Amino acid sequence: MDALRFTLTWGLGGMAALMIVQQLVTGLLLGFFYEPVPVVAYESVQHIQSSVFLGRLVRNMHHWTGHALIIVVFLHLLRVFLNGAFYPPRHRNWLVGLGLGVLVLIANFSGYLLPWNQLSYWAVTIATSMLSYVPLIGTSLQEMIRGGSEVGADTLQLFYFIHTTLVPVGLFLLMAYHFWFVRKAGGVLVPGKERAGDTNSKKSVPISELLVREVAFAAVVTCALLLFSMFVDAPLAGMANPELTPTSVKAPWYFLGAQELLLHVHPIVAVCIVPLSIGLFLLFLPFGKNKAGKPGRLVTTLFLTGIVFLVGLTMTGIWFRGPGMKWVWPW
Question: What confidence tier does 83 reach under pLDDT thresholds 50, 70, 90?
Fold first, then answer.
């Protein structure tokens, strides 16, 4: 069947679901030894890495899978757009998918601070400081996210609660609905076989056949992540020191595009107008005109241009910015 072709979905939806489950399992294991209190938090992570049986491997797996999950969700969104699988009757699932994407970002950002090392402390400090540029409510929003005026014990407790309670519950509720609605909408959309709003042309994919392919690919992905985690350690710099600012302070890589943009345009544009415009564009995308179930040339051009722009800014921030965000060559 056309809907079972691997190149139609690349297994990205199942891969994302697998990674979320892996994050839950490894997170639960880490939670047995982690304590969300400054100084103690850092020492507990050190204890996990050096003294707990397989602790280093579990932490590595949790760390790298979280970062890989962002990339997979991004690619999944791109695949859904290119296939036009967001128009009615799938528009509600597109909105749920956007919610899942936001929760994945929140999960990574909230978990970034938990090791309480220099890298995580100052990255979160920089990322949350961007909120102060939001007109009228920026300072209040920043203090709400930090749990106070500065990143400290209250911030760590808040982030821990969000990371271990709110986000997992939200992810699994939305993920269950997301997969249920894929089945309700007739399974995977095959481009050219279904037009927007044409519910009579839908043909459901046998779930047993789909599961065999998804599970097989999931096993390959799990092995790849496991092997990578066996040889590459998750970073753990020195313990957080609010009095000592590192020479190079960057936001987490998935927010580096915004930090890079701050260097080129007014802060209100970078932190408020651009993210708001992207969010509104994605939210209202399913309700625009389409040609045979595919977005028009203008919408496609805007979407792909935005993707290239975002990836370019992020890569620039990662590889071409050194201490003080000054331009450097990566070689």
Answer: confident
**Residues 41 and 35 sit within 8 Å (Cβ to Cβ):** yes
In a domain, residue 282? The reply is no
Residue 195 domain boundaries: 2-244
Reduce the DSSP state of residue 168 to 3 states and report it: helix
Q: Strand (E) positions, the chain? A: 290-291, 294-295
Judge whether 270 lies within some domain. Answer: no
Looking at residue 138, the DSSP 8-state letter turns out to be H
pTM value? 0.88
- Rounded Cα distance between 272 and 280, Å, is 12
> Within a domain: residue 105?
yes
Q: 88-132 pLDDT, tens per residue?
A: 888 888 999 999 999 999 999 999 999 999 989 999 998 899 899
CATH number of the domain residue 9 falls in: 1.20.810.10
Q: Tell me, what's the pLDDT at 186? A: 63
